[in-house]
Amino acid sequence: MSRVIDEVDIICEHKSDGSIIPIRIRLMNEDGEYTVFTIKGYRESEKKGTHTTEDGIYVADSTFIFECLIIVAGIKRIVRLYYDPMTNAKWKLAI
User: Fold this and answer.
1) What is the model's pTM?
2) In angstroms, what is the C-alpha Rg of the chain?
3) Which of 5, 34, 49, 68 is paired with 24 by a 20 to 30 Å CA distance?
4) What DSSP line would sit under 25-79, residue for residue?
5) 67 is in which domain, residue-wise?
6) Alpha-carbon torsion 85, 92, 41, 30, what sign?
7) CB of 2 within 8 A of CB of 95?
8) pLDDT in tens, 5-18
9) How many domains does the chain contain in total?
């Protein structure tokens, strides 16, 4: 199971058709300083109805799930972002 961070700052674009494009992720490190990661590529996962994901996160049809490519210390990593606009929930990040 992945590590899940429940409070993540995300910069994204909300388009007129209701779609969302994630642009940057901002996390607070152990020293209390922010680290910013630019999303180099992403894809939105298919909606599969209400279920619990492989990361242990309960999602509904309204939940957006993005698989994003970021670079951490020179290494490419795939992370998942979760956002449900119907519940005004915070963005979650699965590493």
Assistant:
1) 0.90
2) 13
3) 49
4) EEEE-TTS-EEEEE--EEEEPPP-SSEE-TTS-EE-TT-EEEEEEEEETTEEEEE
5) 4-94
6) positive
7) yes
8) 988 999 999 999 98
9) 1
